[in-house]
Amino acid sequence: MLVNLGLTMLSGQPPHFIWVKDNGVFKRVWNGKIIELKQDGKGKIESNDRKFANFTLRSQDDLKKIYSKIAIDSFIKKAVKDYEGMRITQSPVWEATACFVLSSNNSISNIRNSVQLLMKKFGEKTEGMYEFPSIESIAKAKEPELRECKAGFRAKYLKCAANLLLENDYNFDSKDKAKEFLLECQGIGGKVAECICLFGYGFLDSFPVDVWIKRAMDEVYFQGKHSSIDSIQEKAGELWGSFQGYANHYLFYEFMSKKRK
Questions:
Q1: Which of 62, 143, 191, 224 is the most exposed, fewest CB within 10 Å of its CB?
Q2: Spatial distance between the Cα atoms of 246 and 236, rounded to a whole number of angstroms
Q3: Crossing angle of helices 63-70/229-240, nearest 10°?
Q4: Mean pLDDT of the chain
Q5: How far apart (Å, rounded) are the C-alpha atoms in residues 205 and 172?
């Protein structure tokens, strides 16, 4: 399996907010057990729970095949070269939902801080570490308690999301159905819904558009012209089809690195 574990786990996806890195080993609690994930010097992934590791790292994804499908121009070709081995991860839908509800108008460091505080306050403790809070615990929580975890104005949206998932069957076989369902929740807009579809449901035909992806798409694929979110997502579908979620993540990192220079 082609993977750069450090790059993947620290690239602003849900594992970035949930897992803890300790001496090169990524750890988290899952179902009362501490899961460990690391990469040896030869690139081999080692874990005490292979099934969960494979789920998280989407071991079924053939990155070389995906690269051949998305690297159709010089910009993405360079992105693939610069960030080779960065995989799209998958997390349980509830975890992805909570993380991205907290991401609204927020920085990566603040999202992680808030998630870690929520885990400590509402998650079950195992050997000094905390599990991600259950849907039930957040649904029952009072908004002031959530604000104590730096959720801010997102506290009520987090409760809304928890209740939505708690009260409904949220298993879907397509991005469109999942997105329509998620948009029923106050505080979940198009970008957050697309993120949940990509990183929670695992629908690789998702294409979240934040301010940076819009700037990147406008500059690289719309000749500097301002475009609508609908036209950006239509263009992404035309260019990258069923793997546009991967193209999105690589586009973001390549564009951001270019802007930092």
A1: 224
A2: 11
A3: 120
A4: 95
A5: 14
pLDDT at 105: 87
Map out the domains of the chain with their CATH numbers: 5-60+91-199 (1.10.340.30), 75-86+207-260 (1.10.1670.10)
Across the strands, what pairs with 135? Answer: none
Over residues 182-195, the mean pLDDT reads: 96
Give the pLDDT of residue 4: 97
**8-state DSSP, 9:** H
**Single-letter code of the amino acid located at 107:** S
SS3 36: strand
pLDDT in tens, 17-51: 999 999 999 999 999 999 999 999 899 999 999 99
**C-alpha–C-alpha distance, residues 119 and 256, integer Å:** 30
Residues whose CB falls within 8 Å of the CB of residue 229, separated by 6 or more in sequence, listed in order? 190, 209, 214
Q: What is the pTM of this model?
A: 0.95
The H or E element that residue 107 is part of is none
- As a whole number of angstroms, the distance between CA 84 and CA 76 comes to 11
